[in-house]
Design a protein that fits this description.
Strand order of the largest sheet: 1-2-3-4
Number of helices: 10
Structural class: alpha+beta
Oligomer: single chain
Order of helices and strands: HHHHHHHEEEEHEHEEHEE
Shape: elongated
Number of strands: 9
């Protein structure tokens, strides 16, 4: 058949299909321009909920316009070929397509809504929003699949029966997956940590910041920027430390003083105690002690035990640094010195009083000789 005869035979079909395609294209452009204008208007007004709604439906609505145009063109073709099965097929396909488009829009909205509510204020814990969003999307996915199968005339009852038998077999084979899902639920409900917190798994030598809590695993970003993907069942069987939730950071240091400064120790200890009791960076509601605790191998040991009034690691290190430097100044103020290891060597045939001392560089004193 020549092109002229073909066009003559299908003249109406071509014209009608072209008109439908042109109208669909114009409608598509109008929909996208209108939606983008509404998004911009909502953003300028600060209406974040409306903006999220428009963004969620923009792409699905565009697909819906194309889908309706394709359906109308298919109807034009059906009028020419007059095949009942084809008419039924395009009707079912349109219904299934509309269901999928609606589900797509709802999915986008369910993804955006938890983040939107978190940005508007701490009405609920962010982990609760995350859990609700994931559960809602899972329910939407299952419901959409069942409705689409029903629309396409698949026998749902048979599928559910087969799925029940297969589910038992899959359940035995996927016990680890189930354990991870229950682990995720325990994390969401018990909240031993949340996204953005620093956690430590001492038994696994993992330390870092929680970035994402999924159904199967939790992503922890180490301090060297390495990602750790921890299966969720681990949190049911292993110890989890959450340092940011501590009440205060402990400072426990031993200050070595020369044996030659034994008579100066009472005054040194007295001033050190007064300094710790008045330090503004120390949490005075916690235990604090300054005591002479031990005759060490080369020094008199003073223990300083207290807690910084912050849970931030860097800030607590600054407090500890100030305590150590000031302790050295107090010892020096009273004529004492910090002790460093010293070695005394007694030569054969030499009296003990004539033994040669070999101190370490800058040594300030030490213990009596070890024979």
């Amino acid at each position: 058949m020549s092109a002229t005869r073909w066009f003559g035979a299908y003249h109406d079909l071509v014209i009608h299909s072209g008109v439908i395609a042109l109208v669909s294209l114009m409608l598509l452009i109008m929909v996208r321009l209108t939606a983008r204008r509404m998004i911009g208007h909502s953003a300028r007004r600060g209406a974040s909920l409306a903006e999220a709604l428009y963004r969620s439906i923009l792409s699905p609505l565009s697909v819906l316009v194309v889908l309706c145009g394709a359906y109308l063109i298919a109807l034009q073709i059906d009028q020419r070929i007059r095949v009942r099965a084809f008419e039924h097929a395009i009707g079912s396909a349109l219904q299934a397509g509309i269901i999928l488009v609606i589900a797509w829009a709802l999915w986008n909205l369910l993804e955006a809504y938890p983040r939107l509510r978190q940005s508007r204020g701490p009405e609920l814990d962010p982990m609760i929003y995350d859990l609700i969003g994931k559960a809602a999307r899972l329910g939407l996915l299952i419901l959409t699949v069942l409705v689409v199968l029903r629309t396409l005339n698949f026998p749902i009852e048979s599928l559910l029966t087969v799925g029940g038998v297969a589910g038992i077999a899959i359940g035995f084979a996927a016990q680890g997956v189930v354990s991870n899902v229950f682990g995720a639920m325990v994390v969401y409900m018990d909240k031993p940590f949340k996204i953005g917190e620093w956690i430590v798994l001492p038994q696994m030598n993992i330390s870092g910041t929680v970035e994402h809590i999924g159904w199967r695993s939790t992503r922890v970003r180490g301090f060297d920027t390495s990602p750790f993907y921890v299966p969720n069942y681990i949190f049911n069987t292993h110890i989890v430390e959450t340092p940011p939730r501590m009440q205060a950071r402990r400072i426990q240091q031993t200050i070595p003083v020369r044996y030659a400064d034994i008579e100066r120790m009472p005054e040194i200890l007295k001033e050190l105690r007064a300094y710790i009791e008045g330090h503004p960076g120390i949490d005075h509601s916690q235990s604090q002690m300054v005591n002479f605790t031990n005759y060490g191998p080369h020094s008199l040991d003073i223990m300083i035990y207290c807690f910084a009034g912050t849970v931030q690691w860097g800030e607590s290190l600054n407090v500890q640094e100030d305590v150590l430097l000031t302790a050295a100044q107090i010892i020096s103020k009273h004529g004492g010195e910090l002790a460093l290891p010293i070695t005394r060597v007694q030569m054969q045939g030499q009296d003990a009083g004539e033994s040669t001392a070999n101190p370490s560089p800058h040594a300030g004193g030490g213990a009596p000789a070890n024979r």
